[in-house]
Amino acid sequence: MPVKYLKWYSRELLQAEPEARFAFGDNCSRVGRGGQAAACRDEPNAIGVATLYAPGLFYDPADPVALAHVSNDLAKVARELAAGITVYAPIDGLGTGLARLPEHAPNLHRLIVAFFRAAPGETCPWKD
């Protein structure tokens, strides 16, 4: 199934579409409720893509552990797509808000953008 892009998620939307998955910018600690996490945290159909170590603790662009976190989370999204499940993503991107990923780890940001550009579905609206 495809990737579709939405302006904003609400907890009600996630609960109304239990068969779909919702990708959101997360952190490696899997804590906090800032940004899209406010709607997604603790919902069974949400997939966090870690875009920083912890709230306020930005990625080191040369850290292979950060690359592993991003890659593992994108693999979760890929598995859902391969299983025929629709995955929603925020129209403004992942890691572009509180994580400021394009500024702090631009190569990881470009990896996420490339992944969603390669995914089936709506044309990815994100910038490099």
Secondary structure elements and their pairing?
Layout: E1 3-6, H1 11-16, E2 21-26, H2 37-40, E3 46-50, H3 64-82, E4 87-90, H4 101-104, H5 106-118
Parallel strand pairs: 1-4, 2-3, 2-4
Description:
The protein is of the alpha/beta class and 128 residues long. The protein has one domain. The protein is 36% helix and 15% strand. The chain contains five helices and four strands; from the N terminus they run E-H-E-H-E-H-E-H-H. It has helices spanning 11-16, 37-40, 64-82, 101-104, 106-118; strands spanning 3-6, 21-26, 46-50, 87-90. A four-stranded parallel sheet has the order 1-4-2-3, with helices on one face. Strand 2 (21-26), helix 2 (37-40) and strand 3 (46-50) form a beta-alpha-beta unit. The longest helix has 19 residues, at 64-82. The chain is globular, with a radius of gyration of 13 Å. The two termini are 24 Å apart. The model has no long low-confidence stretch (mean pLDDT 96).
Structural class: alpha/beta
Contiguous helical run count: 5
What would the average pLDDT be, to the nearest integer?
A: 96
**Low-confidence regions:** none
Strand order of the largest sheet: 1-4-2-3
Overall shape: globular
Amino-to-carboxy terminus distance = 24 Å
Percent helix: 25-40%
Fraction in beta strands: 5-15%
| CA radius of gyration | 13 Å
Along the chain, the helix and strand elements come as EHEHEHEHH
**Total domains:** 1
